[in-house]
Write a structure and sequence with these properties.
With about 100 residues, the protein is an alpha+beta fold. The chain has helices at about 10-15, 30-40, 45-50, and strands at about 1-10, 20-25, 30, 65, 70, 80, 85-90. About 25% of the residues lie in helices and about 35% in strands. α2 (about 30-40) runs antiparallel to α3 (about 45-50).
Length: about 100
């Protein structure tokens, strides 16, 4: 079954995607990992570079990912299931040095 989720982009993710909100269709069972993979295939390589840490192949160092208002780190991480009509928010993490 195919589900539809709404992704909200904030900060640099909104700039690179050119969208504030985006409807994404995913095959069930859908996870945050599936969503991230589909988003990086949908948008530019710059979007992928901003979202996914290339050394870890993981978006969590670069983005706070909220599913239903909860950080995925308090859920099942990238294996967190997403349900039909759920909202996922991508918020960039600012790194300093």
């Amino acid at each position: 079954m195919v589900i539809s989720v709404e992704v909200t982009f904030l900060g640099v993710f909104q700039q690179l995607s050119g969208k504030k909100r985006f409807q994404m269709k995913l095959e069930e069972p859908a996870t945050v990992r599936n969503l991230v993979m589909n988003l990086t295939e949908t948008f530019s390589s710059k979007f992928k570079q901003a979202l996914v840490d290339s050394q870890l192949d993981d978006p969590r160092p670069n983005a706070l990912i909220l599913v239903g208002g909860k950080d995925v780190s308090v859920l099942q991480g990238l294996e967190t299931e997403v349900k039909d009509a759920e909202e996922i928010v991508l918020l960039p993490v600012v790194h300093g040095g």
